[in-house]
Amino acid sequence: MTMRLFETTRRAVIAAAVGAAIWGFAAPAGAQTAERPFITVASTTSTEQSGLFKHLLPQFTGKTGIEVRVVAVGTGQALKIGERGDADLVFVHARSAEEDFVAKGFGVGRSDVMYNDFVLVGPKSDPAGVKGSRDAVKALQAIARKKAPFVSRGDDSGTHQAELDLWQRAALHPKADGNWYRETGSGMGPALNTAAAMDAYILADRGTWLSFKNRGDLTLLVEGDDRLFNQYGIILVNPARHAHVKEKEARTFINWVISPEGQAAIAAYRIEGEQLFFPNARRKGA
Amino acid sequence: MQGLDEALAAAWRLIVTGDTALVEIVALSLKVSLTAVFCAAVVGLPLGAVLALVRFPGRGPVIVVIDALMGLPPVVAGLFVYLLLSRAGPLGPYGLLFTPTAMVIAQTLLVIPIIAALTRQVVTDLWAEYCEQLTSLGAGRLRAVPTLLWDARSSLVTAILAGLGRAMAEVGAILVVGGNIDGVTRTMTTAIALETSKGDLPLALGLGIVLLVIVLAINAAAHMLGATARRAAG
């Protein structure tokens, strides 16, 4: 009996020691969160994956000491995150959806920040013959006539909404028109990967396109149409609705982004000499 | 197989330069997954043993549900935890969404069924072997739980490694609840997903190779420990 008691104790000690060793190694995972002040920004894949935030945020954090944590998703999902109060501000590109977000009281004080444009990308062989056109709507009509493969984001992102708007202007319903029109339900990068693999046409934001590496046989075909304009806006999540929103820090960020300093920082971001985003804030302030 | 050599070169560069961002990402991946597996083992091992030994009403359905949950899609677990931790959800006031803690919770949920189901099987077999002996010693079924868990320890290491494999490999759950925030919740798998999105396939695959090497090292270490323990016992 003494023997068994000894044995049980020994086992318990070993188990406790192993547990403590694992825990000691693993514990910092939870302890990591409480340090300097931070805000959470729900933003789009285009701003994150183009590298803009990597260029912009260290400058803001260096000046203010406020860390900015970016959750990069599609515009539709970013607005949803803001609506649920899981971010302090949203930084997206879908004007009408943003205005709706403010009108419903989920956010306050939308400010324009910058713009870039969408570009129509497709295979070098260009079966629909749209290269060099400045008319995006006519280009889509030509693609539809040829039933050339076209990849759609299909994810309610800002780019997806812009694409649907163009189809509507073209008076076409590609989704009902056979399997040349393919909705991938994915972000800009994965959709570009798909288009590259299928030699398909695709509407992309210029920033992601410029920084995208796996282009395969894809090339830029149509640009410069006014209807390809892509405006980015920034909105504070309504503190009256979500009391935990870090209003002071979030307003500091918004005011910096639309300040001459923040705007200059946006203009300075280039990939291979090409400017990706063009600041156009009308300095209202949040 | 064009691109594979580039990936190997990228992996090699990542390892030899000891890239600090990579070290942070690897450390976070290990912390999150090991913590999750530890929590899941604390729940799953006794749960599996009790299910193997103790008869109670509804035991059959519980076993089926746990076995089925081994196939729970990580995204679904992620969404469940997201809704739980979201500011608009029941645990919202704690502000845990988009933190490593949220990722640990999601992975724990994914790993518990694997450890519990495999433990139940191992303990069931062991009980069949020893039941007469243990019963004659006067041990009740519930009292036999710690003894059997201890005796099955070398088999249970495999159950725990299977759980760790699930945790280290999954991306769907931690992407949803962690948000893949640079420097805060970016792990190996979410970084791989991100680089794939950016079309930097060599870097993505390079990171994948690094992840594979780490998982391999953990498994090798576990097996060596197991072998040493067996020699010591034998």
From TrEMBL, chain A:
Keywords: Signal. InterPro entries: ABC-Tungstate_binding, PBP_domain. Residues 1-31 form the signal peptide. Pfam families: PBP_like_2. It comes from the Bacteria. Residues 34-261 form the PBP domain. This is ABC-type tungstate transport system, permease component. It comes from Chelatococcus sambhunathii.
From TrEMBL, chain B:
The chain crosses the membrane at residues 32-54, 61-85, 97-118, 156-181, 201-222. SUPFAM superfamilies: MetI-like (SSF161098). InterPro entries: ABC_perm_TupB-like (IPR049783), MetI-like (IPR000515), MetI-like_sf (IPR035906). It is a multi-pass membrane protein. Its main location: membrane. It is found in: Cell membrane. One of its GO terms (biological process) is transmembrane transport. Residues 26-222 form the ABC transmembrane type-1 domain. GO terms for cellular component: plasma membrane. Keywords: Membrane, Transmembrane, Transmembrane helix. It comes from the Bacteria. This is ABC transporter permease.
